[in-house]
Amino acid sequence: MRPDDDYDDLKEFNHDYEGDTSVLEKMHLEYQKLLKQNPDLEAHLNSLPKKVFTGKQHPKQSSKAVFFCYQLPVEQKKSNPDGTEEREWTTDSGYTQWYLYNLENEEVVTEPTDIIDLISSTPETTRFRSIKNETLSEIRQIIEKRIKDSYLKKVQAPIGVKANLKAWMELS
């Protein structure tokens, strides 16, 4: 290599290889730490209903948002005993997508690194709600339409295949 060669790609590769812990990796490590510190936590989480809802105060006064966590479906091949193959849609092997709907500007944020600090809670976090149920339902419909119009169309999911709401939280 010559001194005037561009080393940015090499620097980026080295950073990625040796790298810093990403926010998503930190989130996963924090989750693993919580499971380790609380041996009964995983069983408790598994015992929760299929959907959970809660609310807490928004960190910014007079701001309101609603957080949603969806399991998005994926298409899987399934081999039959007779050697034929079927395709089925399942959320069991799908991936998780976060959505944060800001009531002030009607913006939807999907980047977990922009959401995590808003929804982080401890057992001591006080449950708080002030958004009307009708408004919450309307926002949920907006998010589900967005999922249908973007993700489900992109993966060409057949009619009737839906994302699975796992958790949502009012921030008000």
What descriptors fit this protein?
single chain, 172 residues, alpha+beta, 2 domains, five-stranded mixed sheet, 5 helices, 5 strands, disordered N terminus
Briefly say what this structure is:
With 172 residues, this protein is of the alpha+beta class.
Detailed description of the structure:
By secondary structure, the protein is an alpha+beta fold. It folds into 2 domains: 1-47, no CATH class; 50-171, no CATH class. It has helices spanning 8-18, 23-37, 41-47, 112-119, 133-154, and strands at residues 52-56, 65-79, 85-102, 108-109, 164-171. A hairpin with a 5-residue loop joins strand 3 and strand 4. The longest helix has 22 residues, at 133-154. It is globular, with a radius of gyration of 20 Å.
Low-confidence stretches: 1-7
Class per helix and strand makeup: alpha+beta
Instruction: List SSEs in N-to-C order.
Output: HHHEEEEHHE
Shape: globular
Radius of gyration: 20 Å
Helix content: 25-40%
Q: Sheet with the most strands? A: 5 strands, mixed
Main sheet: which strands, in order across?
A: 1-5-2-3-4
Number of helices: 5
Extended strand count: 5
Describe the secondary structure blueprint for this structure.
Elements lengths: L7 H11 L4 H15 L3 H7 L4 E5 L8 E15 L5 E18 L5 E2 L2 H8 L13 H22 L9 E8 L1
